[in-house]
Amino acid sequence: MADDVRSPRVLDVLAAEKPWEVPGDWLARVRRQLKAWADDPEALRPLRPEAFPDFVKGTPAAVWYTHQVAPLLTGWIPVLHGEYADLSTELTHEFYRPSSRLGGSGHVIHAAPTDWHLQAIAGARGFRENGRKHALQLSRNVAALFVDAPPMAARATALTAAFDRVLANREITELHITGEYDDIAKYWRTDALNDAERAVLPELAGPTAALRYSLNAVRDTHARMLMVSPDEYAGDFAQVLAELILATGLRGIPQSVANILGDSAIDVHKALQDLDPTFTLQTWHGHINQWMSRAIRNGQAPLARSWGAAAARVGVHLSGVLNNAAWPEPEVPDLTTLFRMLDRERWSALENQAASNQEASLSAAWNDVKKEEDKSAGNASGGTLDDALPKPLDFSDNPIAELDSLIGLESVKDAVRRMVAEVKTNLRRAELGLPSHERARHMVFVGKPGTAKTTIARLLSRIYHQLGVLEKGHVVEVDRSDLVGAGLGSTAPMTAAKFREALGGVLFIDEAYSLTPENTPGDYGLEAVATVLKLMEDHRNDCIVIVAGYHREMQRFMESNTGLASRFPKLLSFSEYDTDQLVGIFELQARQKGMIYGEEVLDKVRAVIPPAPRGHSFGNGRFIRNVLEEAVSNQATRLSASDPDKLTERDLRELIPSDVRPPTSMRAEDYLLQKPGT
Q1: Which pLDDT value is given to residue 429?
Q2: Of 527, 556, 573, which closes a domain?
Q3: Coiled-coil regions in this chain (predicted)?
Q4: Which residues of 546-577 are buried (b: 16+ CB within 10 A; e: fewer)?
Q5: pLDDT value at position 12?
Q6: Which of 358, 529, 650, 660 shows the smallest number of beta carbons within 10 Å?
Q7: In which domain, by residue range, is 101 found?
Q8: Same domain, 200 and 213
Q9: 166 lies in the same domain as 214
Q10: Which residues contact 593 (CB under 8 A, 6 or more apart)?
Q11: Pick from 488, 477, 541, 536: which is nearest to 512 by CA?
């Protein structure tokens, strides 16, 4: 591509909201300063150039230090992409002569000890006092180089201010000049930063603080992603952390992580037990990539970037990179695909801008690429691939349309439509100053596993959020283990915490009947029920509670407490799916994933569905989801034998009959001809 149509050269820091188009004058200014340090005899005096591998003779410590810390000023364990991903080499190319360099369109992850900012000071420990003071001053000056570079500005400004306070305080300066390094490091971990600076440089407080920051970042970004882009497979924080642990190759929670999680480690341990038997990295990557792609398409690229950066950071912690263990392989999460999606959005934006300015060069170049792809892929109709292949279904902005698309569940759909009509009518009454005729919105869902109870709860939450009834529209899914403590006095606080987490959304209590086991007087579950009822009264308009489980067991549950029936005026019954409906569910879920298929594939799906009557614990829609996931995994294995550069869009989206097999996660109960539950 010619220089005049080339896209801007950027430094793309994953944790940042968008790539930074690096100004040529900024780059030149930094390089001039490095050259000035190299030409300053005073700057060379305390150095030992022979100690710097791959650097030319005479390189000053300031240049070496710039090379070490520039990437780390973009964030803790940063992921860098773009033309300036190898930022250190770009800045110090006159001095740095490595045997190999980063090339192509890849990315790089930087990890370092939490005292990375003290490298020059640590290296000057053998120097005399003047040399050690010089190391302190150059540490400050290098940080100040980046205060006007957007991806580094906040951290560089905070670090510069901290060094300035050290240099302004005679006693602290003396510590850095004459003190033991351990005392210097301790000062930086405990006293060097104020609260605002610690917020942007959290790792300087030490490894435990860095790990806590990384875990909290995953928790926060995951919750925000679920709020703006609900996903059936994403799960809660416990699930995503369990998936990160399994994806890294571990089978249990590292002790350092467990210490920070506290009681929450129980939830992660439970998620690990549930996921471990069926977890595959390929399937998980596929789910996450689809989720990220949908978020990016819907204008949530900054949040998707934050999620990816936080997950990658925890992946590095889990892999033990900071303890010189093996680098995570493959990467967790799939950063290559994430950057490809982000680049596609960036290039598309550039195309639109070029078109609006009637500058067609970039657009024409990108169209040439797409034409070549279409030409190589081809299609039966002779049109483009976009014309030939159906678009993936996407209901992220229209929960009502997603409700209508669900297979079966006609009575449930009708009940939801009536509830929506009731809300709209009451909203109009309120606008006209008329009294409302609204009933409590809490509900009972009864039905077997996999009959879309959780799906309907999520759709209801999104619908009520769009109507303005719920502030957030999220769903907090819990069961007995989340609400009932092991000892006296622990249940009420646990239950209240989960209820507070659900405020503004839906609290979904699965297998609610387990809170009131038969013939167990004094069970702590009764306290959980009483606590929920009290909080429902206190927050009657702030949260919808849905209790779910089997028909017979839920009837017993509703009779266990005299206050339950009146608090849950709506009951939705979820019927078991017949074989045709299960095949229809496969088609719907495949289309949502963007997959295409022929009738032979559907015949194969029909063949792997157990005949009726099915077992009491048969997974219904969950079973079909496993069939589809297994088919996608088998397709990937089949395609891995082909040249990836020759794979077309149709190849990547098409399932064939041999891809469909009984899922490896299928339980024996799925095939047992037990008497169905009632």
Answers
A1: 78
A2: 573
A3: none
A4: bbbbbeebbbebbebbeebeebbeeebebebb
A5: 93
A6: 358
A7: 10-205
A8: no
A9: no
A10: 290, 392, 628, 632
A11: 477
The number of folded domains in the chain is: 4
Q: Give CA separation, 179 vs 125, 175, 184, in Å.
A: 9, 5, 7
Q: Does residue 555 sit within a domain? A: yes
Confidence class for position 321, pLDDT limits 50, 70, 90: low
Sort strands 443-447 and 570-574 into parallel, antiparallel or unpaired.
Answer: parallel
One-letter amino acid at 49 equals P
> Helix 237-247 and helix 301-319: axis angle, to 10°?
50
User: Helix, strand, coil % (nearest 5) of the chain?
Assistant: 60, 5, 35
- Is-cis flag, bond preceding 330, omega within 30? yes
Token couple for 440:
């409590």
Q: Are 442 and 568 in contact (CB under 8 A)?
A: yes
Same domain, 617 and 637: yes
How big is the chain by its Cα radius of gyration, in Å?
29
Token readout for 97 is: 């002569």
DSSP per-residue letters across 518-583: TT-TT-THHHHHHHHHHHHHHTTTT-EEEEEE-HHHHHHHHTSSTTHHHH--EEEEEPPP-HHHHH
Alpha carbon distances (Å) from 105 to 74, 86, 343, 368, 647: 19, 11, 10, 19, 20
Amino acid at 666: M
In this structure, are strands 443-447 and 475-478 parallel, antiparallel, or unpaired?
A: unpaired
Residue partners of 24: CB distance under 8 A and separation at least 6: none
221 shares a domain with 164: no
Query: CB neighbours (10 Å) of residue 372?
Result: 10
Q: At what angle do helices 207-228 and 301-319 cross, to 10 degrees?
A: 140
- What phi and psi values does residue 426 have, to the nearest 5 degrees? -70, -35
CATH number of the domain that 473 lies in? 3.40.50.300
Comparing C-alpha atoms, which of 325, 101, 305, 131 is closest to residue 217?
305
**Largest separation between any pair of C-alpha atoms in the chain:** 89
Q: What is the dihedral of CA 165, 61, 87, 164, to 10 degrees?
A: 10
The conformation of residue 109, written as its DSSP 8-state character, comes to: E
At 573-584, the pLDDT tens digits run: 888 888 888 888
Give a yes or no: residue 380 inside a domain. no
Strands 10-13 and 79-81, sheet pairing: antiparallel
Together in a domain, 432 and 420: yes
**Strand 544-549 relative to strand 506-509, pairing:** parallel
Say if residue 332 is exposed, middle or buried (CB neighbours under 10 Å; 0-12, 13-18, 19+): buried
Among 483, 523, 527, 545, CA closest to 263: 483
Decide which of 180, 205, 230 is a domain's last residue. 205
* Residues 201, 227 within the same domain: no
Are 197 and 212 found together in one domain? no
CB within 8 Å of 211: residues ≥ 6 apart: 256, 257, 260, 317
Note whether residue 333 is domain-resident.
yes
Residue 362 lies in a domain: no
Average pLDDT, the chain: 82
* 180 and 302 inside one domain: no
Instruction: Find all residues with CB under 8 Å of 345, minimum gap 6, and list them.
Output: 296, 301
3-class DSSP state of 391: coil
Arithmetic mean of pLDDT, 301-311? 94
Give the pLDDT mean for 519-542. Answer: 85
Cross-strand pairs, 81: 12, 107
The neighbouring-strand residues paired with 572 are 445
